Here is the input.
Amino acid sequence: METRQGQQELHSKTARIAQLSHEIAVLKCLRFGKKGEHLPAGLQGSLLEEALDEDIAALELELQALEPQVQAKAEKRQPKRTALPPELARIEIRHDPASTDCACGCQLSFIRDETSEKLDYTPGVFRVQRHIRGIWACAQCETITQEPMPAHVIDKGLATPGLLAHVLVAKYADHLPLHRQEGIFARAGLRLARSTLAQWVGECGHALQPLVDALRTAILNGPVVHADETPVRLLKPGKKETHRAYLWAYAPGLFEDLKAVVYDFADGRGGEHARAFFGNWQGTLVCDDYGGYNALFRQGVTEAGCMAHARRAFFDLFESSKSPVAGQAVNYFDQLYAIERELKNLPPDERRHRRQQQAKPLADKFHEWMLAQRQRVPDGSTTAKKLDYSLNRWEALTRYLEDGRVPMDNNYIERQIRPIAIGRSNWLFAGSLRAGKRAAAVMSLIQSAKLNGHDPYAYLKDVLTRLPTHPNSRVDELLPHNWSPQTTA
Here is the structure.
């Protein structure tokens, strides 16, 4: 049994290595082939190059984890690094043994210092961290002692966690593509190749993915989840056109203690993407009237509709035509919202009780009124369509009346998608499917940090510092809702 299982694991590992090797080869062909044949010109080509460089770095990191000899080959191919400019400020960080007493009882003798330099960045200012590690020897037992270099999220990399965090926040929170950051850094006194920045982003995205997976698990541990999606253009490598992809957003219910959001990038809007995210989760899903969620409802997920969408339909009609029917409908909605505002800070059980007392009679009256109005308007008219939208979804729209944990609308998740809409006008599109998924992962951590009142830069800097030595079994400690800055003695 063990032999068969071992063979299956070996076969799976070999297949994965072959798949990654092939994907890397294809990406390198796109990246370094004849640009006239592969890459669109101008800004699109620049952004696609960034995405390909990031993808290659992330894939090679995954391949190295499966095939250790790849790491040794990569180190041999590593070009000699250009020395950092001498005019940059230096900060010396010493790493010496806690004790200079040898295990044999003798006193260690200092031999020399060994220095390595890493590039640090405080917004607007570069400086160099000089890590000095003394080499000590024991004359009697002829042993050498030296403190190891602190573990880094990018092994033997040039950048400190502070610089890496800045690049990620600038790209995914401030919506600055890497070619713009390259220019900003040059004005600050140092030229950093765009390919280098892309490699950092790819490797950081790979390293941070376990946190996003844990954040998804935390969200699905709750009884209520919000879901929404927004279109993003995805560039097809080898072609000059884009096609519509989607960024899905998921968050715990508005009244939950957990403040988090997870974005999931997909190359389409099909319901299989939502099903893959939720798995076997059973709870109440607050969403819009989108058929992609129907399979979830058939497997036992409870649907809660969005009153804001229903109200918006009537409000738009009233704004355009001054329809008295639409105006009265908006008035009903506004009365329901007025009641809900008074209940938002109550415990779930009390909120449900008050909703049953105050909101349910009004909702029932509103429903009867809509049924009566529907009999008076002709089929196919705009007013009929607006009435049908609410009447056909009335059970889902009023689900919140039966459960005090369920919010009245889906506005909470729409607010979490707003930063994506702002960024979309800046970074134009995702350069590849992997780039989209990487962006979704990093943006999940950045936006969740904001929801918990953290500075995304401080959060990512600390997490990237601790991640290399942090036990996988305690990854939850690094999630934004659990995180607190590391204190130094």
